[in-house]
């Protein structure tokens, strides 16, 4: 619980001091913080390693007097040195233990702490725990250097923008309908970093769409079976279906849209197939090193992307419906059960038996350790904490359960904090997981499932209606939700307008806050000078009203 130690002791500090005491730890603004700014100290590494950084600052007589006054005030109030006098390694460790809200509070204390908190690498940890590395514009020139500021922005800027964007899914949206498939669409994939949407279905044709404009860019020749799974990144596109093989396209250098899937180009080496499954391929996923595929032949296969060959085969007890990799593990669903495998040694690390009544059709994971979402034939969506699953449990208990659908949940997709689901009842459910997932206060900083009463689970925050047909696949990202089903239409729910409305509202709030601060400052100055504020206050209010009208 935060408190002001000076108020508690009845002591007032000089105007150039401010302090915040939180459970015995003091964060105090130092009057010499302007020195650091003038010298260009932009990083926490510039602080002294063992001694106070201020000991090496050249001081004149006035500065020494200010130091003595500051030291006396500090000693007389809290009796300890200020937070920034700690060794640099300790300051870094303290900042690394803070969450986003706490880092924001620290940055408001002083100019020096604002610089330290803004440039701290904790923002990178907070970002990557939720969303992984940022999706920058597609490029084939090589990977981005890990840990560096991306696209000219700081990690704090990336975090704030992404957190702001995640709020748009509760706002106004438009629905665009993409038509081109002749029969039901079984798979959609959204590659937001390249502004692309991929779709496939019973007509055995893979189509590539422009996400912003909704225009068809390219389409493949008929592949001879129902397309049931699609996955892609900026270097590789893979599809699978009832013909049991994996169709692959490599990205083409110089192609604005990355892939040439029609097969009419001069480079025929960009298209190839992977054989190995003995039944329909139902699910696909990619990471930087591997391709993952699941099939009704009751196996999950792991393929080496460098040599394009199968390196692992994971056997299941039933048809495989879905899979989701995470680091060195891969989760999969088969029959009524959910599995978690360690791909380093092909061992089964967790088995969730009887996860649903009926088949477990869908699965979702993200950059959250040990957290697993499943969707089943019973219309339920369940959250499991894999670390709590015991091998002796015949029926593992979920942490949370939602039943937003009256039909099977065919597809799940997750982008922090939103879990979205598509069902045969023609509806889409949006579930906010912020209250369920909380970061651990540890050096690892992983997320864990928050303990709470299961009866207190909130229903989905939003339901999207009006589709009127079975939905088979869904994807989320970049202010979009993409879904498709049995009517052959691909629907894109566009929430970018909600973002623009929120930006305008935020600008208006900032202007009003600025005007209030100006009025208070002018009022304080007039009171100090003993002048009558009536006429000036009226003029200030008129100017403020004019400013508000100009913004709107």
TrEMBL record:
Superkingdom as given in the UniProt entry: Eukaryota
InterPro entries, per the entry: F-box-like_dom_sf (IPR036047), F-box_dom (IPR001810), WD40/YVTN_repeat-like_dom_sf (IPR015943), WD40_PAC1 (IPR020472), WD40_repeat_CS (IPR019775), WD40_repeat_dom_sf (IPR036322), WD40_rpt (IPR001680)
Keyword Nucleotide-binding: no
Domain F-box residue range list: 80-126
Residue segments, region Disordered: 45-68
Chain positions of WD repeats: 178-219, 274-313, 353-387
Keywords: Repeat, WD repeat
This protein's name: F-box/WD-40 repeat-containing protein
């Amino acid at each position: 619980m935060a408190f002001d130690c000076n108020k508690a002791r009845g002591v007032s500090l000089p105007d150039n001091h401010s302090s915040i005491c939180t459970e015995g730890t003091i964060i105090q603004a130092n009057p010499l913080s302007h020195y650091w700014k003038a010298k260009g100290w932009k990083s926490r590494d510039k602080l002294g390693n063992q001694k106070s950084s201020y000991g090496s600052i050249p001081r004149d007589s006035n500065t020494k007097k200010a130091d003595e006054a500051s030291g006396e005030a500090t000693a007389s109030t809290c009796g300890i040195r200020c937070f920034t006098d700690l060794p640099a390694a300790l300051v870094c460790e303290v900042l690394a233990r803070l969450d986003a809200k706490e880092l924001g509070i620290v940055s408001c204390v002083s100019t020096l702490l604002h610089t330290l908190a803004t440039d701290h690498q904790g923002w990178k940890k907070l970002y990557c725990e939720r969303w992984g590395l940022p999706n920058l514009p597609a490029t084939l020139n090589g990977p981005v250097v890990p840990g560096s500021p991306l696209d000219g922005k700081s990690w704090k800027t990336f975090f704030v923008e992404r957190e702001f964007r995640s709020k748009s899914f509760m706002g106004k949206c438009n629905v665009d309908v993409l038509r081109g498939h002749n029969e039901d669409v079984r798979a959609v994939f959204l590659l937001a970093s390249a502004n692309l949407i991929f779709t496939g279905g019973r007509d055995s044709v893979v189509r590539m769409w422009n996400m912003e404009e909704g225009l068809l860019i390219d389409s493949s020749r008929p592949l001879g079976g129902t397309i049931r799974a699609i996955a892609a990144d900026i270097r590789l596109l893979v599809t699978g279906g009832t013909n049991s093989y994996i169709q692959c396209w490599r990205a083409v250098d110089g192609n604005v849209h990355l892939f040439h899937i029609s097969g009419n180009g001069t480079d025929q080496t960009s298209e190839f197939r992977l054989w190995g499954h003995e039944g329909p391929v139902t699910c696909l996923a990619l990471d930087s090193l591997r391709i993952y595929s699941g099939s009704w032949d009751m196996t999950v296969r792991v393929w080496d992307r460098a040599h394009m060959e199968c390196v692992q085969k994971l056997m299941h007890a039933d048809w495989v419906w879905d899979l989701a990799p995470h680091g060195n593990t891969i989760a999969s669903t088969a029959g009524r059960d959910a599995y978690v495998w360690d791909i380093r040694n092909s061992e089964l690390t967790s088995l969730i038996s009887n996860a649903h009544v009926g088949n477990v059709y869908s699965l979702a994971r993200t950059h959250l350790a040990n957290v697993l979402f499943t969707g089943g034939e019973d219309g339920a969506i369940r959250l499991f904490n894999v670390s709590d699953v015991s091998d002796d449990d015949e029926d593992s208990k979920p942490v949370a359960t939602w039943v937003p659908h009256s039909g099977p949940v065919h597809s799940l997709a997750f982008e922090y904090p939103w879990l979205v689901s598509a069902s045969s009842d023609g509806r889409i459910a949006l579930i906010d997981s912020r209250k369920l997932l909380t970061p651990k206060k540890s050096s690892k900083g992983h997320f864990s499932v928050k303990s709470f009463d299961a009866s207190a689970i909130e229903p989905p925050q939003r339901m999207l209606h009006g589709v009127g047909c079975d939905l088979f696949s869904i994807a989320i990202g970049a202010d979009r939700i993409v879904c498709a089903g049995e009517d052959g239409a691909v629907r894109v729910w566009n929430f970018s307008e909600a973002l623009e409305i929120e930006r305008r509202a935020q600008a208006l709030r900032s202007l009003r806050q600025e005007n209030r601060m100006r009025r208070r400052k002018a009022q304080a100055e007039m009171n100090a000078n003993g002048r009558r504020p009536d006429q000036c206050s009226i003029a200030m209010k008129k100017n403020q009203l004019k400013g508000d009208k100009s913004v709107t």
